[in-house]
């Protein structure tokens, strides 16, 4: 299968923006601008709408940048920190590229009783298909996330917690609007 997004290029962009200030939105704006320079026909540079997201207990803000049946790119973070379950995706690899903050994690199935090495700004990690982790996302942490595989299979995990546990219909509505906007943008090309 061929994909349009190269994880190594996303990592390069993440490394370029590390250290830019969160205040005033420079870190996020520069990330989007640099991604759009690399992928001008894919990344949505329009005024981004942040959407509340709760999945696996992890509560944060997400901004959708690209979505197709086989790939997605989003920005995700939390000003105050959060923790929970990564999800277990049988058909998708989830790559994270940390822009600011710190993410601690541990493998749920291993015999290890110690956490994985902390993910620090400029570093990357990949949750491979079929694996699951416990996560702590520290306050002020923001990352670029790239999913590769049968993306539609991630949507139940991404939406069920928000919809059925939190009863947060507005976030589900906003997410649906953002997905629809990106899909219709792709269909127009």
Index terms:
single chain, 189 residues, alpha+beta, Jelly Rolls, six-stranded antiparallel β-sheet, three-stranded antiparallel β-sheet, 4 helices, globular
Task: Please explain how this structure is put together.
The protein starts with 6 loop residues before the first helix and ends with a helix. Helix 1 packs antiparallel against helix 2. With 189 residues, it is an alpha+beta fold. It has helices at 7-17, 26-38, 155-165, 169-188, and strands at residues 51-55, 58-67, 71-78, 82-85, 92-100, 103-107, 124-127, 133-137, 141-149. The chain has a single domain (7-188), classed as Jelly Rolls (Sandwich), CATH 2.60.120.10. A six-stranded antiparallel beta sheet has the order 1-2-3-9-5-7. A three-stranded antiparallel beta sheet has the order 4-8-6, with no helix packed on it. The protein has four helices and nine strands; from the N terminus they run H-H-E-E-E-E-E-E-E-E-E-H-H. 29% of the residues lie in helices and 31% in strands.
Q: Main β-sheet, in a few words?
A: 6 strands, antiparallel
CATH secondary-structure class: Mainly Beta
Mean pLDDT: 88
| DSSP, total strands | 9
Assign an overall shape. globular
Blueprint (SSEs and pairs):
Elements (H helix, E strand, L loop, with lengths): L6 H11 L8 H13 L12 E5 L2 E10 L3 E8 L3 E4 L6 E9 L2 E5 L16 E4 L5 E5 L3 E9 L5 H11 L3 H20 L1
Antiparallel strand pairs: 1-2, 2-3, 3-9, 4-8, 5-7, 5-9, 6-8
Helix pairs in contact: 1-2
Organism: [Mycobacterium] fortunisiensis
GO molecular function, one term: isomerase activity
Keywords: Endoplasmic reticulum, Isomerase, Membrane, Transmembrane, Transmembrane helix
